[in-house]
Amino acid sequence: MQRIKKNDQVMVITGKDKGATGNVLNIDLSKGTIIVKGVNVRTKHVKPRRKGEAGKIVKEEGSIAISNVMPLCPETKKPSRVRSEATDAGKRVRISARSGQAF
């Protein structure tokens, strides 16, 4: 089971954006990278492609290593490790190790 999923609230724990929080936009498990809203923002210059079109500068989030983020505990809003447990119905749920609350 994944410890981080799309739309989770995470905090960057190392790197130039240490301490920043945001929602997960995309996860690439094959590369081990993650894209977080508002973290590792890059500036990209886009050339005009058609006649009369103007060039522009676009800011977009770059990917960071998935090991550089931790999910935020839903109760305490602090970074927390995640464990998984089976429910009575046989379904696996993610549990915050800090508070014991399910994600």
Order of helices and strands: EEEEEEEEE
Rg for CA atoms:
18 Å
Number of continuous helical runs: 0
CATH topology of the domain at 9-73, anyone? SH3 type barrels
Biggest sheet features = 5 strands, antiparallel
Number of strands: 9
The gist of it:
The protein is an all-beta fold and 103 residues long.
Structural write-up:
The protein has no helices and 9 strands. The strands form 3 sheets. The protein has a 5-stranded antiparallel β-sheet with strand order 6-3-2-1-7, with no helix packed on it. The chain has a two-stranded antiparallel ribbon with strand order 4-5. Strands 8-9 form a two-stranded antiparallel sheet. It has a domain at 9-73: SH3 type barrels, CATH 2.30.30.30. It has strands at residues 9-12, 21-28, 33-36, 41-46, 56-61, 64-65, 69-71, 82-86, 92-96. It is elongated, with a radius of gyration of 18 Å. A hairpin with an 8-residue loop joins strand 1 (9-12) and strand 2 (21-28). It has 103 residues and is mainly beta.
